[in-house]
Amino acid sequence: MFRNELMESVGLIALIKEDFNNHRRDWTLPGFRALAIYRYGTWARTRRFYLARAFFSIIYIFLNRFVRNIYGIEIYHTAKIGRRLHIGHQGCIVIHQYATIGDDCVVRQGVTLGIAGIERGETGSEHAPILGDRVDIGVGAVIIGRVNIGDDVNIGPNAVVLTDVRANMTVMAPPPRMMSRMTLARPNIDDEKLNLEK
Asked: Which residues span the membrane (predicted)?
């Protein structure tokens, strides 16, 4: 039987109510729906009796596939997600099955929390990211491997995090390069023919 300490101590209904309030009390938001189904899946896998666990888990599997395929939000019931996670928008959000997320975090579209690499055999829980409390992750950010992100960390858009980050830090992607819009002269085909003939 699968165990989840948060589910045991707080309960399914209380956790879903918190997530609902944290998503502007709008049950139609994909982020809230994804979290509610995650919470339900965690609850389903913690049922003591096998038949009840199997019945509720089958429902969870269909709901989870719906969220993954329609909203592009992939969360497994085995991930450890704290209270009041806010998922802003939808699309290309992947939270690895062994990732750990603290309380009051924010995840935006295009975020990936993943393992370092299957080809290196780094697939277990010891290779997944661990996020502290109040971590704010910008659009398109990628956190890969066994990295520890401290409390109150801001991770900027499109940042790639491969190392630990201390608490109260901000991680930014490299600054963009400025390039002039001058157009290069296109080569003249007749000139190219002359060069070839020479």
From this structure: 49-67
Residue 159 lies in a domain: yes
Both 97 and 8 in one domain: the answer is no
What are the pLDDT digits (tens) for 68-81?
999 999 999 999 99
Q: What is the DSSP letter of 134?
A: T
Could you read off the pLDDT of 135-184 as tens digits, one per residue?
Answer: 999 999 999 999 999 999 999 999 999 999 999 999 998 888 887 776 55
CB neighbours of residue 181 within 10 Å: 4
Task: Please report, as a single letter, which amino acid is at residue 154.
Answer: N
Number of domains present in the structure of the chain: 2
Q: Are 147 and 163 in contact (CB under 8 A)?
A: yes
Closest CA to 60 of 42, 33, 84: 42
Question: Would you list the DSSP string of 149-197?
Answer: E-TT-EE-TT-EE-S-B-TT-EE-PPPPPP---PPPPPPPHHHHHHHHH
What CATH number has the domain bearing residue 145? Answer: 2.160.10.10
Q: Check whether residue 47 and residue 96 sit in a common domain.
A: no
Q: For residue 84, give the nearest of 33, 18, 150 by alpha carbon.
A: 18
Count other C-beta atoms under 10 Å from residue 57's C-beta: 17
| Residues 96 and 49 both lie in one domain | no
